[in-house]
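My hope is that you will study the protein record below before we discuss the fold together.
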Amino acid sequence: MSAPRTRTRKAVLAGVAGIALLAAGGGSFATWSDTEDVVGADITSGHLRIDDSSVVWTAGGEEIAIDEYLVIPGSVLTYTATVDVALAGDGLEAELATTLPTPVTAATEAKEADVALAEGLTVAVQVNGQDGTTITDSGAYTVVATITFPTVDGDGAAWGQRAQDATADLADFQITLQQKIA
């Protein structure tokens, strides 16, 4: 063998051994690099809540005690709640509504008069004068429910003796504030 070939072979073997040593020792052929420390941040949530509400029942424009008031055909009862709403959150929208039951149910399903009264009553609910309200700001909002005992039944007939000495169950209900998801 000639000396130049042996030298070339030795150089190749040395190069392979050097690469193996670099790989085993964690060495790198990487180009330039750098790192930067980034300061952390707090992520804070907002809120959605009803802070306060006040309720008034009226009939014919006069305040009434609903549990003592006796309706007659033609009665219109109005439930008015002023609700203080607090919203905090970027882009937060909420729906303000009530779970007031429509239709109203008979206090005793077996009693014909109760059933007639419950079926005769109509309920309409509005928030700030609208059927539904999207809230985007904190503030006072008004929820109004109008419960009407019409002068005639659903078929247009006079009530006669039906629905007298009867009880309809309005049941418990809530004013709700629910976030709207876009």
